[in-house]
Design goal:
579 residues, 9-stranded antiparallel beta sheet, 5-stranded parallel beta sheet, 27 strands
């Protein structure tokens, strides 16, 4: 079938008689990953600016900005495309339809590259692409991006060429030089029966010229964007056909994959990304002393306690020779000197003897804030696994050290090269993803968790000026305790500062459906319909605190908010479940 692709008009979106669909779902619109990579300007909430078909009185073109407000743009601007199709009767279309939570029919019509494949699948696709083993379907998008098939699905390979980094729908941050694999999937449209229109749920394409004329007179069918939609985009939306392998071809292909896998990994090693925690645990289990670098508040001790909750922590900044190395006292009755081991050593020895099958950690914290003489004593313990040349560390004792780097602390002392080289070194960087995972596991207040996720970590830290409170991971933990106790978010200004507190209060005042509401069924369809895009996003990220046993129920609920929000939920919650 041939469709007439158009854009919504200013009257249909902002006029007194705007169409029912826009009245129900709002004017904000999410952006596909393909559009983001192609240059779409995206807000923190994942919404973008999109063209309308109407002209202004000055010859400009009307647009909807990222917040859903009416704006103008030059007629010669390049921008985003949210297409519509004239469709009086949806039953006549060759597509599957379902009832959306907003009350409108949703149709799947056509295919287009939309969301990025996850990291693991992207690595597989890139490896297969490099070896020339991906099968081409013969189709190209925008006349340049070839379509490949893999395991029954279709993908395109898109180099990220934008100067500024951008977040994709799964929270991944892409920067120049990255390669992104985008899955080709059915395009979802909402049907407004009264207006006789199918409207794309998302912005599909970006970087499209509206018109080559400096003045737009409102004759939409003469614009470049109209031509683009009804030629290039129309052709791109036609689904391609997967190459069907014969049983012989499939068997040969699978055998080639097995052989290739053996050649790529002749030593039987396990490849893939490893976290800081993986390296720390690996060093401890291997008997290699490990040094954790990073500024205060980055959770260095928390990472060690995740591995050994009963680890013995020694703050070397405050240590004395006696407290670290033990002391000798004179026994008047015998006239001999008696060596007394330090308290920390006695505790570690007792734990190791009581639990010989477990590893127990001795954690030297703030080691490079210690005096050089104390560092020297610690060096002997690390080097010889011996305290004061007398007492041997138990075989199941392990050493971990931590400290601030020179640029992070005025009191830090440079570590001597022989001491530095005795450690495996891990440089702690608390990313938003890692902090949210930790927050889920440590009962951080749901409002704080949702806010940090909503801001994509932008407010996880703020600059320290020595005069006013600033935010950092440790301060947010303290804020969580205060919020649980007092229930007064305005009090957090004493911890994270006035500006972030004000924004946090505004966030907490917007309507959302909480995890407790979802699990207890304490919501109705009308409440969901009234949530705007920002509120749906805030609801979604707040629900990613769900436990493994709650995921199925919560994911089913998030699907009612829209496919794009389920993708956001999956990127936060389900990715952790797979690890």
């Amino acid at each position: 079938m041939n469709y007439n692709y158009r854009l919504l008009s200013q009257e249909q979106v902002f006029g007194e008689k705007r169409i029912d669909l826009i009245s129900a779902i709002g004017t904000e619109c999410s952006v596909s990953d393909f559009a983001i990579i192609s240059g779409a300007d995206v807000s923190e909430n994942g919404t973008g600016r999109w063209f309308l078909s109407s002209a202004s009185e000055y010859g400009d073109v009307c647009t909807v900005d990222q917040s859903g407000n009416q704006r103008m743009a030059y007629a010669t601007a390049h921008g985003n495309v949210r297409p519509t199709i004239e469709c009086p009767d949806i039953s006549q279309l060759p597509c599957r339809t379902v009832k959306d939570i907003s009350g409108f029919e949703e149709a799947e019509l056509g295919e287009y590259p939309q969301n990025a494949a996850d990291k693991a699948l992207s690595r597989t696709l890139e490896q297969e692409y490099a070896k020339g083993r991906l099968i081409k379907t013969g189709k190209k998008y925008n006349a340049q991006h070839e379509e490949f098939q893999h395991d029954g699905s279709k993908y395109i390979r898109v180099p990220f060429t934008l100067e500024n980094a951008h977040y994709l729908s799964d929270g991944r941050n892409c920067s120049q030089g990255d390669v992104v694999w985008i899955e080709v999937s059915p395009v979802r449209w909402l049907h407004d029966a009264k207006a006789g229109l199918l409207v794309s749920r998302t912005i599909l394409a970006s970087g499209v010229l509206f018109t080559s004329e400096n003045y737009y007179d409102g004759n939409f069918e003469k614009t470049a964007i109209y031509t683009y939609m009804n030629t290039t985009l129309a052709q791109d939306l036609i689904p391609s056909t997967l190459h069907e392998m014969t049983s012989e071809e499939k068997a040969a292909y699978e055998e080639d994959m097995k052989k290739a896998a053996r050649r790529r990994n002749p030593y039987g090693l396990s490849f893939g990304e490893v976290s800081e925690e993986d390296i720390i645990r690996g060093a401890i289990e291997s008997g290699v002393a490990v040094f954790l670098h990073g500024p205060s508040s980055e959770g260095k001790s928390a990472r060690v306690k995740q591995i050994d909750p009963t680890c013995e922590i020694i703050y070397l900044r405050n240590a004395t020779p006696d407290s670290l190395n033990g002391r000798s006292v004179y026994n008047q009755s015998t006239g001999e000197m008696i060596d007394i081991p330090p308290t920390w050593f006695k505790k570690v020895k007792a734990k190791c003897e009581q639990e010989p099958d477990r590893l127990h950690v001795v954690f030297f914290d703030e080691i490079n804030n210690a005096l050089p003489s104390i560092q020297g004593m610690a060096f002997n313990i690390v080097l010889d696994r011996e305290v004061n040349g007398i007492w041997k560390l138990p075989d199941n004792a392990r050493v971990v050290a931590a400290g601030n780097d020179m640029q992070d602390s005025l009191a830090a002392h440079q570590l001597a090269a022989p001491f530095f080289n005795r450690f495996a070194h891990v440089y702690i960087n608390t990313t938003t993803e890692k902090w949210l995972k930790w927050a889920r596991e440590n009962d951080i207040h749901p409002a704080i968790y949702a806010y940090i996720a909503y801001k994509r970590g932008e407010t996880l830290r703020s600059p320290y000026d020595g005069q006013k409170p600033n935010a950092d991971p440790r301060k947010w933990e303290m804020a969580s305790k205060m919020l649980y106790t007092t229930g007064r978010p305005e009090m957090l200004r004493s911890l994270i500062g006035e500006d972030i507190t004000d924004e946090f209060v505004q966030f907490c005042n917007q309507p959302v459906i909480t995890l407790e509401d979802v699990l207890n069924g304490n919501y109705c369809d009308e409440e969901l319909e009234n949530l705007n895009t920002s509120e749906r996003y805030a609801t979604t990220v707040g629900l990613t605190q769900a436990s493994a046993s709650e995921l199925e129920t919560v994911r089913s609920f998030v699907s009612k908010l829209g496919e794009e929000f389920r993708a956001v939920f999956d990127s936060y919650a389900l990715s952790e479940e797979k690890k």
